[in-house]
Write the structure tokens for this entry.
Amino acid sequence: MKRFIFFVDSFTAWAGKAFAWCILLLTFGTAYEVFVRYALRDPTSWAFDLSYMMYGTLFMMAGAYALARDSHVRGDVVYRLWKPQTQAKVELTLYIIFFFPGILAFMITGADYALESWSYNYGMGEVSINSPAGVPISQFKTVLPVAASLLFLQGIAQVFRCILCIKTGIWPPHLEDVEELESVLMHEHQDEIAQQQDSSRSEMPKGTGQ
């Protein structure tokens, strides 16, 4: 189980970081559109399509990565008070009842949606109707079943995490990754306090505590 969890976490991390580059395309495309629209009075016909495709792809393909890092928003007012084994039992139940049926429906519907899109224009694929540029969008719709498949795979890894936690009473660790700046600053502050306490103890005269 641990090997499978590590493999899936590594794979979804690679996918998430690879598609994170979409943010650069989105940024440059939007900046270029703003410049030519307001400075040159010559707006593009493709910037809108680029913006929603890049943002949508980034959002969808980051889902499995966020699940692997336990980064989704959680209403854990009560959850955090439970023992790890209780948390794992509740999560395992919710994955089986809600997560997998929803993701399976997402995969099937998304695949039908993508196949229909590719069937247009004699198999050449669908083009956008939002602009006269005729930007192809079938590849964007294909992201839906791909993202759903990644979420399903990561869900299996999360189920294995729950099973291991129920057996051992300890949550298996996540792969090390970037931390929020707030967490980094908090750790640094705690380290400084610990160092100050250690230095103050070392400077105390011997026999003071006797």
About this structure: The chain has one domain: 2-73+82-193.
